[in-house]
Amino acid sequence: ALRGAARAGVQQRPPPFRGLRTSPRTQSVMPSWVIDRYGRNDVLRFTRNMVFPIIHFPNEVIIKVHAASLNPIDLSMRSGYGATALNMKRDPLKLKSEDTEFPLTLGRDVSGVVMECGMAVSYFKPGDEVWAAIPPWKQGTLSEFVVASGNEVSFKPKCLSHTEAASLPYVGLTAWSAVNQVGGLNESNCSGKSSCMRGPFGTDWFSSFSERNEQLVKAWGAHVTAVCSHDASTLMKKLGADEVIDYKSGNLEEQLKTLPLFDFILDNVGGSTEKWALDVLKKWSGATYVTLVTPFVINMDRLGVADGMLQTGVTVGSKTVKHLLKGVHYRWAFFMASGPSLDEIAELVDSGKIQPVIDEVFSFSEVPKAFQKLEGGHARGKTVINVISKK
Question: Is residue 135 part of a domain?
Fold first, then answer.
């Protein structure tokens, strides 16, 4: 349980056992932004009567939300994307009396303060400043309070404000999943390796995700090539890219072929990328192509749970074998909520190796404007919500 102490090799006495606490003030409802149906921005509704979160399991904590941020998954979920898969995860045994996920609160990122702890929580206590990324099947963070599992939560980086910290967890963990958990790169094996990051740098979450990956592998000593548009090249170089390729200036594949072969390619664009990736990766040397563009959720929405999972399995299996026969590993990556991974990311943030990139901060009353900003697709970083703002 004492994650930080174990990693640092420091012997610490565990805090005294804490039972379930109740709020110092009786509270059954809270302010929140919710949706009651899927659709466009007009489905967003502000309420002061959202049910206050309860600790159902002994490893859970309730967090008072100071800041949250938006990701494209919030736009997608607002429109109903992934409803089949997420509802199955929410209630796999169909035990709920009401067969609906509404009212549904969006928002995945949170930075705030622990208010209550379950009986099994020994790593946190009320008053701790924490950050987390809440899985998409749980109620989100565009509320005054949110409940999370203790293993999804981490201490907030000391050098960041809550507003800055809220911009990082979801994209940071997605990057960590793609690079470390799936791609197999880490501090001990990344030095000297050549990596290529392919993404639409400079736009909203995709910019933030790609930038986090670049900063992460650069912090571990890799040689980084960023594929982006010309107007994002300055930012990419500032964040540590050794090479910047403008995909609009000519044939991208031919430009990449002029460079040494890559050990690792990360793609969050899809399309033709995986076709030319085979030609620029080192064959039979453990080189890996990782993509976040997967049909898993779309297949389940379109075909249903069973057929969707079957179709997804066939697709990933055939692509894995196809690439393996040519000497390259093919992988899909997904967001994974993880407090221990956020511990590692927090250390990189506090050491200055990863920095938040924020485009605009909105007050809690301006959540629909924040969604419009994200939907416009012209931001240079994350869109953050200051939840405790009085505006």
Answer: yes
Residues of the domain holding 44: 29-168+356-386
Task: Specify the CATH number for the domain of residue 268.
Answer: 3.40.50.720
Of 94, 92, 95, 111, the closest CA to residue 154 belongs to 111
Q: In the 8-state DSSP scheme, what is residue 195?
A: E
Distances (CA, A) of 158 to 130, 153, 320, 348: 10, 15, 41, 11
Encode pLDDT of 271-316 as tens digits: 778 888 888 999 999 999 999 888 887 888 888 888 888 898 999 8
**Closest CA relative to residue 345, chosen from 203, 153, 108, 106:** 153
Rounded alpha-carbon distances, angstroms, from residue 361 to 66, 96, 137, 208: 13, 37, 25, 15
Summarised one tens digit per residue, pLDDT across range 142-189 is 999 999 999 999 999 999 999 999 999 998 999 899 999 999 999 899
Bridge partners of 267, per DSSP, are 198, 291
Other beta carbons within 10 angstroms of residue 188's beta carbon come to 8
For the chain, the farthest-separated pair of C-alpha atoms sits apart, in whole angstroms, at 66
Q: Which of 78, 57, 73, 177 is nearest to 120 (CA)?
A: 57
Q: Distance between CA atoms of 280 and 277, rounded to whole angstroms?
A: 5
| Bond prior to 72 in cis (omega within 30° of 0) | no
Whether residue 161 is found in the same domain as residue 254: no
